[in-house]
Amino acid sequence: EIQNGDEGYSSAPSNIALIKYWGKNLSRKQIPDNSSLSYTLGGFRSFTKVTTQGRFLPETYEKTIPIRNKLYLNSKDIEFPIPEKMDILIQSIFYNFADEITLKIESYNNFPTACGIASSASGYAALVGAIADLLQLKKHLSAIELHTWLTEWARLGSGSATRSVIQSSEDSFIKWELEDSCKESFTKTSELTFHPKWKQLEHCVFVLNANEKKTSSSDGHKSASTSPLHNVRVAGVSKKIAMMTKALKEFDFDLVQQISEEDAFAMHAVMQTGNPSACYLDEDVSKALALFIQMRDSNEVLAFWTLDAGPNLHILYYKDAKQILTEYHVKLQELLDRDIKIFKNAYRGGLLIG
Length: 354
Ligand code: PMV
What we know:
With about 350 residues, this protein is α+β, with helices and mostly antiparallel strands. It has two domains: about 5-195, Ribosomal Protein S5, domain 2, CATH 3.30.230; about 200-345, Alpha-Beta Plaits (2-Layer Sandwich). Helices cover about 35% and strands about 20% of the residues. It contains ten helices and eleven strands. The protein has helices at about 60, 85-95, 120-135, 135-140, 145-155, 215-225, 230-250, 255-275, 285-300, 320-335; strands at about 5-20, 35-55, 70-75, 80, 100-110, 175-180, 185-190, 200-205, 305, 315, 340-345. The chain is globular and about 65 Å long. The structure holds (3R)-3-hydroxy-3-methyl-5-(phosphonooxy)pentanoic acid. This is Diphosphomevalonate decarboxylase. GO terms for molecular function: diphosphomevalonate decarboxylase activity. It holds the Pfam family MVD-like_N.
């Protein structure tokens, strides 16, 4: 029985896809067009507390002004306009429990908003985790059932949030697959086994443009299927995932680099050739990429790049590349003639807030 004032807590990491998901079935189930594979950004986390508010008794329901779900993002004092998608998600979850319940959501990110990392993956994974805690689902469901519950609801918030639900390891690689038989769930996520050397992998983002993106990922997913390249990319994803899974086990760095970089370009090619077309690879990104590739290749250091649906350069690298990345930062600022911020996925172990 849910009482007014009940609380639930959770935290979840962000992630960056190395083999992207782009394009989805826009029905209520939001099934992605292709499987994907991501690296967990354990240092970039969302911390979320939910509190039930406004449980009305049926006879007083008519007389009461319905209380809306409320969102406080990174601040206890300022109410943030709740995205419609989040509102609908909460209503849908509570529909089966007590549909008159609304929530106060307090969420904190330990990473800055304009740092080139979308907070939707960690944010939605932490939100559904906090609701599961509020509903005490751990007591009522098996570990597998709970995992399925979390991933299914997280996906409806943000596809990439599905890959942020698994929390067993900070530095994990997560595979998000389509299920053949949709009995329990429509998709499945699992943690991949990887060679211990990947534990030393580091990640940072060069923020080339911190402005809000012109095309939201929801709109982008909608136009993916209009690109003549979309089906070609989707058809090749399973093979890429199988190859990368093997390369992660064997520590084949070159193959992981090659597949990640090729797939990031492939996703951006689909974006650019869709209708309407979305182009995130502006002149600055092209210059930044060319300089990175030239410096990385001439120094033969272990580092590769990827790009999300935005103009910010994500670099995954080993210690031996640190010096080159410092030099790269200086040269990049000279080349673009302005300050470029870097954010590092460095708060391993999580930072407790609030
Ligand atoms: O998480 P969504 O549904 O907003 O879509 C984002 C998809 C990309 O970040 C561009 C790629 C990915 O696989 O994370």
